[in-house]
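FIELD: query
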Amino acid sequence: MATIVHNQADPKEAHTKQLFNNPILEKLTHTHFAVPITILTLAAILVLYLGFATTALSASWTIGLFFLGLLTFTLAEYLIHRHIFHMAPSKKWKAFVAYKFHGVHHDYPKDKSRLAMPPIFSTILATLLFFAFKLVMGDMAFGFMPGFLIGYTGYLLVHYVVHAYQPPKNMLKELWINHGIHHYKDDSIAFGVSSPLWDYVFGTIPKKKRRK
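FIELD: result
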């Protein structure tokens, strides 16, 4: 697994850097983590409401689809982080995408304004995903999509608190440890942020835990 290309930033320097010369594009790369979380949570509630109001989905089916969407997001999170954000920079466009979307975060992990996807991109992506799910799943998308969106908001929240706060003294400490290993020791393992599930499944959990 090839590691992502970074520019090794001096931790004593500023905790951010300019990505684009265009001031509008540059501004769009920054956001407070609560903004996309609020937007996506409201979107999930709206889709659930529309599902109950306009479809024949039962409550039990909706709940089941919701948790399926939530689980599917954790897999999507893992695969995107591992195979897109850390894809081998074998071509210029791959290096460009990997660095602009994720490499800069590895270089400047204390930049809290880049811990979440900007709301305009989150909204566009969520809209496209909904229509894709609707095309494939029909009315079941009204149960599946909210779970997927809540999974994403959970990821955004976990990613923020892992970088912004000290680890707690409970079972959630594992998330802090794994992400710290990924950032500061070995970025070819520990790709799960909101859950270590798929790291266990695909064998990318840190070795000590794998032996246990």
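FIELD: remark
Residues 1-14 have pLDDT under 50 and may be disordered.
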